[in-house]
Amino acid sequence: MIPIFLKVEKGKIISGEIGTHSLRKTFGYHAYNKGVSLELLIQIFNHSSKSETLRYIGITEDEKKEVYLRSNLG
To answer: Fewer CB atoms < 10 Å away: N or C end of the chain?
Structure first.
């Protein structure tokens, strides 16, 4: 576990511990939402399918649709 301290407001600090697995999943979630291809994330995580990776990073069907709508350059 890695100790973590976050400043959320002036003078307020949240402290706790976070595991490397949580960091890995969080990385995947944010990378996907910033446009990193699902195929690349599958390789990074060594998963065997798109559904496995999406489930792993916590992406729901609605969130997937939103990513595609936001990326429409139309």
So the answer is: C
